[in-house]
Amino acid sequence: MNDQEHKGFDFETFKAGAIKGMYAGKPLNGEKGIFAPLLKHFLESALEGELEAHLQEEKADGIANRRNGKASKRVKSISGEFELESSRDRAGSFEPLVLPKRQVIITEELEQKVIGLYGLGLSTRDISKHIKELYQMEISASTLSSITDKVVPAMNEWRSRSLDSVYAFVYLDCMHYKVREGNGVITRAVYNILGVSLEGKKELLGMYLSESEGAKFWLAVLTDLKNRGMQDMLIACVDGLKGFPEAIAAIFPKTEVQTCVVHQIRNSLRYIAEKDKKPFMNDLKPVYQALTKEQGYENLIALDEKWGKKYPVPITSWYGNWENLSTFFRFDAHIRRVIYTTNSVEGFHRQVRKVTKTKGAFTSDNALLKLVYLVVQNISEKWTMPLHNWNQTLSQLFIMFEDRIKLHL
Fold first, then answer.
1. Can you spell out the DSSP letters for 232-244?
2. Name one GO molecular function term (predicted).
3. 174: closest CA among 159, 188, 191?
4. Cβ atoms within 10 A of the Cβ of 158, count?
5. pLDDT digits (tens, 9 = 90+) for 328-374
6. 287, 318 in Cβ contact below 8 A?
7. Which residues lie closer than 8 Å to 150 by C-beta, 6 or more apart?
8. Residue 224 Cα to chain centre, angstroms
9. Share of the chain above pLDDT 90, in %
10. In the structure, what pLDDT confidence band is assigned to residue 303 with cuts at 50, 70 and 90?
């Protein structure tokens, strides 16, 4: 830095003005903070030093490069907002470290605060208000968006990360959201895959986006899981979507598929008259609460004999889906409770919706994925312990699937 540039900041004058400002009640930080001029000087001096070192390095390497005028940008910090000036290089190869070219917020704490509030589901308006109260700083919606976009590389890396070669249980389900597109609003399905490792710990294995839920798209999802290293899932728990078991069998042919009994019950009750729902359920319970698969099927026949003529559609559905509905009968009661329903992933979805329910429609697919990803990170921090009675569960799984488990130990 030359003498003229050094003389551009009079520290004694700044100190006198700062002391005077303090006595006058001016804040140290914030929009008109006392420290803003000092921070501006430090940053500009550091940038000049970095550029000088960069030009010297390129000269030593035989690269012709030199200064090429000045550039300025509006910078926000907890010490105040100011116009930052810095020199440019003709080659455009200078990448400053102290304050990267496109960065306009210079406190990591503030950016983390914004990302944290966004992950709690706050709107940009609420975040702006919160930051204003906390830091006396105005932040526009576009600036907030650029800050939250910083999670995108981490999100993409997380979505493509390598998986374990085998998972004990895998739950597959989806949520639906509204996303703005052009002048209208469309529905998006967010497909979530929740896994339970051989250590008994939950992990969200994948998060995928599509316009609608369907077995064809699930096939693509399962293929991606395999490409990321998953070689086997012992038991897959799914809703009653037609073609779902076939999609799983195409990619993971050894997997036991359990169709969600709760989904099946809900779908059945849609066809039952209100006055018959209670007695129908009393007769349906012995079907899925039986001790064995054979006993359950006998009770299904009894249900058919009593209700089949009046309500053929739900009874036919139970017969048609029986093979996958009855998978859980092969296991002890404590494993049955874990796999007979997709409640595990639905419980996860309920936690996500607590945060996302305030959103009428997301501005883009990216905005939707960013928020769900951040919510996932918050929820998964609590997934540190194995499922209840996991040693007992693993012992039974080892008896049932010994050869498949040994391949991955």
1. EEEEEEE-S-TTH
2. DNA binding
3. 191
4. 15
5. 999 888 788 888 888 788 888 888 888 887 777 888 888 888 888 88
6. yes
7. 111, 115
8. 17
9. 32
10. very high
| C-alpha–C-alpha distance, residues 1 and 51, integer Å | 10
Domain boundaries, the chain: 1-106, 107-159, 163-406
- By residue count, the chain amounts to 409
Six token digits for residue 235: 């038991």
pTM: 0.68
Contacts of 126 (CB under 8 A, 6+ apart): 117
| Spatial separation of the C-alpha atoms in residues 345 and 31, rounded to whole Å | 45
What confidence tens digit (pLDDT) does each residue in 16-54 have? Answer: 665 565 545 555 444 555 556 766 766 676 678 778 878
Band of the pLDDT at 224, cuts 50, 70, 90?
A: very high
Nearest one of 266, 260, 263 to 235, comparing CA atoms: 260
Residue from 349, 290, 344 nearest 318 by CA: 290
Q: Where are the beta strands (DSSP E) in 239-348?
A: 256-259
What is the token pair recorded at 290? Answer: 């039986």
Task: Return d(Cα 330, Cα 315) in angstroms, integer.
Answer: 23
> What percent helix, strand, coil does the chain show, rounded to 5?
55, 20, 30
pLDDT for 6 equals 42
CA–CA separation, 72 and 88 (whole Å): 10
